[in-house]
TrEMBL record:
CDD domains: STAS_anti-anti-sigma_factors. It comes from Quadrisphaera granulorum. GO terms for molecular function: anti-sigma factor antagonist activity. This is Anti-sigma factor antagonist. Belongs to the anti-sigma-factor antagonist family.
Amino acid sequence: MTITTWKTGETGVVDDDGAGDGDVTVVRVSGELDIRAAPELRGVLRGLLRHDGDAGAPRVVVDLREVTFMDSTALGVLVQAYKTARAHRRTFALVSTSPRVAALFRVTAMQHVMPLHPDVPTALGRTAPARAG
């Protein structure tokens, strides 16, 4: 598994109003996302979603389009990150076009909680700040 992170302003990716303001951090994951790889992803997401004043990222998009396999442990990491984002009023969105990832979300009904977007710009346009609740 490989994890790459960047802020939108660094890559020319723009949000839905056309401004690459850099307040979105994209986490691109590739390869197998399983019990062996999940701790690394958990650490990256915890670092981005931590709540120490202004530290952390206000909006996080996890790009799973290059994930070849994903198990329930990895799904649990994403659910925990989503809950953390909501608790700290941060935005958390997922991108995936993988039928395997979509099947895991469908079987667990998680697509209703954390929808999968087809690309990063779409995820940015469809996300709103998470609300605690």
